[in-house]
Amino acid sequence: MNVIPNRAVERSQLLKGVLDLAVLAVLAEQDAYGYDVVRKLRSHGLNDVAEASVYGTLRRLFATGYLSSYVVPSEEGPHRKYYGMTAVGREWLVEQQKQWVDFRNVIDAIIKTKEEGAPGV
Amino acid sequence: MNVIPNRAVERSQLLKGVLDLAVLAVLAEQDAYGYDVVRKLRSHGLNDVAEASVYGTLRRLFATGYLSSYVVPSEEGPHRKYYGMTAVGREWLVEQQKQWVDFRNVIDAIIKTKEEGAPGV
DNA sequence: GGATAGTACTATATAAAGTGTAGTACCGCA
DNA sequence: TGCGGTACTACACTTTATATAGTACTATCC
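YS: structure for the whole thing
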């Protein structure tokens, strides 16, 4: 029987909850529009992130108040919807970063436990 | 409706896709039953992981063939359903560990980018 | 000039997985 | 007898990444 799991779907689970953080981190550098955020994330190693995921995340973060938005007409294509961080967004980013670091340390510790048996933290 | 995001739900998103890995890592040390896996995960820092999540994960991993199972009667309570790794499960664990390390490196790089501006990669 | 590709965004349906909640059942203790 | 801890199952709910389709503008190639 073929138990080969779908790679894209499988990996996409890892992104859950972290895509917000990644998008915010990109926007913390400088304002950007959706299509550009996608390219930046991919160039950073998130090769398979779907466009719909990024656009959806941007809309969600905007709706929550973490991002502001403005439209800039482009001469090389359709208009671009830029997003920028709000003050609340920056606070949330910092908090999310901490949570990520804590979380990844916990996971790292758990998967190392089996090699040694003595968790060093 | 309340706009305050539910902490538990928020954090739970981070667990998506990683709980499999955590559970397998615990079981790689030694066979264990569900309730025990929950306690071990919590003692490792996953304080708020829900029982239903672990039981569900165990059933899923068992159904996929990564875990074997046997029931042991207990004298201090109801029966215990022990789970142990299969050969395929061990292979998958190794692969998942690699994927996790890659993934967390990418995320770490992205959230650090904004501090320096020079991505090392 | 029309077809095509790249850019840029929106909207909807789907699927995966963690959680909440309720329920079953066994044990020991006050 | 009832309560708390142990141990598991089942179902509905929620969030979120993805697939897919569609709109629309620009530039390029035949």
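YS: worth flagging: Residues 6, 9-10, 12-13, 16, 33-36, 51-52, 55, 59, 74, 76-81 of chain B lie near DNA strand D (CB under 10 Å from a C1').
IM: good catch. Also The interface with chain A takes residues 3, 5, 10-14, 16-18, 21-22, 25-26, 28-29, 41, 44-46, 64-65, 88, 97, 99-100, 103-111, 113-114, 117, 119, 121 of chain B (CB under 8 Å).
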